[in-house]
């Protein structure tokens, strides 16, 4: 498998990256939920890493990563195709920081 962008410690295959780009090029932000679906395996791995955290809620964390503030949906909406960076790489760059922000925010709410 040819490696594409890496999200955290999870490589996104070149084929998956190309599929995400194709969806975006065909549908733009309207294809967001198809794109989010392509990221499901990675999102599940990120969520699984937090399963031992206090007050862990799998569905809530999954929803926040996918559609919450600074989640994948927001990243898709903010993406600038003329940047020359593939969408999967753009998400790769900002999703880990978004996840750290989300964990920090949850800790400080308690």
Q: Which helices and strands, and how do they pair?
A:
Blueprint (H helix, E strand, L loop, with lengths): L2 E5 L2 E4 H14 L4 H7 L1 H9 L9 H10 L4 H7 L8 H23 L1
Antiparallel strand pairs: 1-2
Q: How would a crystallographer describe the biggest sheet?
A: 2 strands, antiparallel
Shape: elongated
Counting helices, strands and paired strands, the structural category is mainly alpha
How many helical stretches? Answer: 6
Based on DSSP secondary structure assignment, what is the total number of beta strands?
Answer: 2
Structure commentary:
The relative contact order is 0.17. This protein has helices spanning 14-27, 32-38, 40-48, 58-67, 72-78, 87-109, and strands at 3-7, 10-13. β1 (3-7) and β2 form a beta hairpin. The chain has a two-stranded antiparallel sheet. α1 (14-27) packs antiparallel against α2 (32-38) and α3 (40-48) crosses α4 (58-67). The chain is mainly alpha-helical and 110 residues long. The protein is built from six helices and two strands; from the N terminus they run ββαααααα.
